[in-house]
Write a structure and sequence with these properties.
single chain, mainly alpha, Arc Repressor Mutant, subunit A, 75% helix
């Protein structure tokens, strides 16, 4: 793998893992497979990447297509297919594609997400943290929190929407202050 590509992979790894987990509804094994497939495809198609284009968006596009391909092959129920949820996930991750004046997008992303997570109620925060921060499988998280899968999906959907709104708001506020 060329040095520049390996640096990009290292830089975008946390974003892609989080994005894959969001697409695969917290199933860490399916998300890991998706990340690996996405990088393999990105390496094979790096010549198609337009210089100056948004690498994060390009990589997420590959991941989204790979997720759909995986779902079609395996009829996975873990894949999020709701266009509104997909759009919300994409908007949330796209907010971190642009470099900030204050430092790296990773630090900015951590700070915003940490702030926004702290604003969620305890039930939503616990579910999000279990699945996305500690990597607990979705069904295990449901059992640990004594939630039905339907209730957990509903809570995750609500939490993602609240996080998306909060991140967008903090991003807009930060941009208006620059």
């Amino acid at each position: 793998m060329p040095v520049a590509l390996s640096e990009l992979v290292e830089q975008y790894q946390p974003m892609l893992v989080a994005y894959a987990r969001a697409l695969m509804k917290g199933n860490s094994h399916a998300a890991d497979d998706l990340v690996q497939e996405s990088y393999v495809t990105a390496c094979g198609r790096i010549s198609e990447f337009r210089e100056g284009a948004d690498f994060g968006a390009w990589l997420r596009g590959i991941a989204r297509l790979k997720a759909m391909e995986m779902w079609r092959k395996e009829r996975r129920s873990e894949l999020i297919q709701d266009p509104e949820i997909l759009e919300g996930i994409e908007e949330t991750f796209a907010a971190f594609d642009r470099p900030s004046a204050s430092g790296s997008w990773k630090e900015e992303a951590r700070e915003r997400l940490s702030h926004c997570l702290s604003r969620l109620n305890e039930g939503l925060r616990a579910l999000v943290c279990l699945i996305y921060q500690t990597g607990v499988e979705f069904r295990s998280a449901c059992a640990e929190l004594q939630l039905s899968e339907a209730a957990a999906y509903q809570r995750l959907s609500r939490a993602r929407e609240l996080l998306r709104q909060c991140v967008q708001k903090t991003h807009s506020e930060a941009n208006s202050n620059e």
